[in-house]
Amino acid sequence: MSQLFAPGSVLVGRYEIVRFHAAGGMQEVYYAYDRTLDRYVAVKIPKAGTKDRRFRRGAEMGARVNHPNVAATLDYFENETLTFMVEEFIFGRDLNDRLANEFFFLDPHLAAHVSHHVAKALYEAHKMGICHRDLKPSNIMTSVDASMESIKLTDFGIAKLAEAEILAEMELFEENESTLLSSNTLLGAVPYMAPECWEDWKSAGMPMDIWAFGCIMYHLLTGEPPFGAGHKAIRNSMLYQHGNYSVAKPSWFGKHPATRELESNLWKLLISCLAVDPQNRPSAEDLMKKFNSLMYATGSRKVGMIGTYPIRYRNGAAATAGFIEYQGLQAFFHASDFYGNVFPGLHQKVNFTSYPGVPAPRCSPVLLLR
C-alpha cells in the first residue's frame, strides 16, 4: 500500500508526520506530532484519504466514548480532498499480533484480565448507544508489557467503513464464494461474526458485539477462534446454529486445581455470549457485572526461561518442579502452575508472576510462550 504522506509533512498546519506506522484494508496510520498541544498522536486516514461520511460518523461516535479502555478520539478533519481522524497514540501491539506471535493461549488469570477490560469498554460504548460492529483482536490494543496492563478498544471510525465493505462483500459472496478470500476485511471479520449478520447485517445490533466478545474469549483461552477461519468459520457457525457443532472446552481445563473455579466461570460467560438467539445473550452491562465479581490474580508479569526441570532430590528422584531464570535470578515453580500444551521443559520461554519466598521466589501462574 502506497504511503500518502512522507515524514515531515504537516497536515492543516498542525499535525507533523513523524513516520508511517501501519496499514490495513481500510486505513493508513501515521505517528504524528501535534504542534498545537505538544503531544504525539495517531493520524488515521481512510483508504485513499478521501471524504467519507461513514468515517466521520464513526469518529463522532468514538469521540462520545470517554473511558480508559477506549482509545480517545481527539480530532477530525475533512475537506474535498482529505479526511483524517486523530486518536491518542497507543504504544503497544494489537491483541491479534500477540496471540499469533507471542502466546499459544492465555492462562485463566490473564484471559480474565484482558476480557474484563474489553467488557468495560463495550459497556461504555453500548451505554452511549454505540455498537462497534467490527470487534476482533486486531481492534484491541495492548501495552507491550508482559502483564498487558493497558487494554484499549479502538477503531470506531474505521469500523463504520469496515461495516460498509463487509456488507458489500457479503452480497458478492452470495454470488461467488471466492470473494471471501479476496477481501481482507471480510476474512478478518468472519471468525467473530454473529449468525444474524449473515441473515440481515443492517438489523444486527449490539448483541453482535457480545457474540464477537465470546469468540475473542475463546480465542484467548485456546489460541484460535471457536469456529475456525474463512469458509470453515461460516460452515461451522451455521452448523452450530442448528445444534450440529459444539464448541469444545480447552484441553487444559480442569488440570489446574487452583483455577478450576475461575475456568468454570469464564466458560459459562463465554458460552452465554455464543447464544444463537441474540436476545438470549447477556448485555454488556451484564458482562461487566459478572467480570466485576470474578476473582483472578493481577500480579505483575515477567518473561523468563526454564533453567532447571525437573528438580532432583538427593536420592536422585525427580520432583515435578523446577526453576525459572530471569534477570540473573531464579524463581521456583511447580508443574501444577504451568500452563502449556506440552510438559515443562528446559529452555522454554515463559510468562509468569512471582511472589516472595524462601529460599527463592515462587512462581504462579507460569504460561508457556512461543
Walk me through this protein's architecture:
The protein has helices spanning 53-64, 95-101, 108-127, 156-173, 179-182, 184-189, 195-199, 206-222, 230-241, 260-273, 284-293, and strands at 10-11, 15-23, 27-34, 39-46, 73-78, 83-88, 92-94, 140-143, 151-153, 302-308, 311-312, 318-319, 321-326, 329-334, 338-339, 349-355, 362-368. The chain has 370 residues and is an alpha+beta fold. The chain folds into 3 domains: 10-89, Phosphorylase Kinase, domain 1; 93-293, Transferase(Phosphotransferase) domain 1 (Transferase(Phosphotransferase), domain 1), CATH 1.10.510.10; 302-368, Beta Barrel (OB fold (Dihydrolipoamide Acetyltransferase, E2P)). It has a 6-stranded antiparallel sheet with strand order 1-2-3-4-6-5, covered by helices on one side. Strands 10-13-14-17-16 form a 5-stranded mixed β-barrel. The model has no long low-confidence stretch (mean pLDDT 90).
Task: Give the helices and strands, then pairings.
Layout: E1 10-11, E2 15-23, E3 27-34, E4 39-46, H1 53-64, E5 73-78, E6 83-88, E7 92-94, H2 95-101, H3 108-127, E8 140-143, E9 151-153, H4 156-173, H5 179-182, H6 184-189, H7 195-199, H8 206-222, H9 230-241, H10 260-273, H11 284-293, E10 302-308, E11 311-312, E12 318-319, E13 321-326, E14 329-334, E15 338-339, E16 349-355, E17 362-368
Parallel strand pairs: 14-17, 15-17
Antiparallel strand pairs: 1-2, 2-3, 3-4, 4-6, 5-6, 7-8, 8-9, 10-13, 10-16, 11-12, 13-14, 16-17
Helix pairs in contact: 1-4, 3-8, 3-11, 8-10
Q: What's the short version?
A:
This protein is α+β, with helices and mostly antiparallel strands and 370 residues long. It has helices at 53-64, 95-101, 108-127, 156-173, 179-182, 184-189, 195-199, 206-222, 230-241, 260-273, 284-293, and strands spanning 10-11, 15-23, 27-34, 39-46, 73-78, 83-88, 92-94, 140-143, 151-153, 302-308, 311-312, 318-319, 321-326, 329-334, 338-339, 349-355, 362-368.
